[in-house]
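FAQ

Q: What does a record look like?
A: Structure on top, sequence underneath. For example:
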């Protein structure tokens, strides 16, 4: 995970711009709601959620199967419940406030992206 982040920074990716797109908020709100509602990531009901996530993530790039595949890889690399728990505990120790649980929503999103490789 750390190596992938370092590689992205070294490649010149604007990490602040990626964060500013609000991808995490879209995943939390829309994928989180779909997960809570019991929507199967492979169902037709999941497609609009996938499109919203991709649209938030892609910026000016076109929505292609290759972009979706690379998004799956990127999300999978950064989705680990153990790392999330580490940051939650670190936040408690340092008084940073609550760090929300995002792993289940990202896992749902990854499964939905795999099931919907193109628009």
């Amino acid at each position: 995970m750390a190596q992938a982040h370092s590689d992205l920074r070294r490649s010149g990716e604007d990490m602040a711009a990626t964060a500013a797109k609000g991808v995490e908020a879209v995943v939390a709100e829309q994928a989180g709601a779909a997960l809570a509602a019991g929507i199967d990531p492979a169902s037709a009901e999941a497609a609009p959620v996938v499109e919203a996530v991709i649209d938030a993530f892609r910026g000016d790039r076109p929505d292609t199967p290759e972009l979706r595949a690379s998004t799956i890889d990127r999300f999978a690399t950064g989705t680990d419940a153990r790392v999330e728990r580490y940051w939650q505990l670190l936040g408690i120790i340092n008084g940073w406030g609550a760090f929300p649980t995002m792993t289940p929503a990202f896992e749902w999103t990854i499964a939905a992206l795999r099931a919907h490789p193109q628009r």
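Q: Is there anything notable about this one?
A: The CA atoms of residues 79 and 107 lie 7 Å apart.
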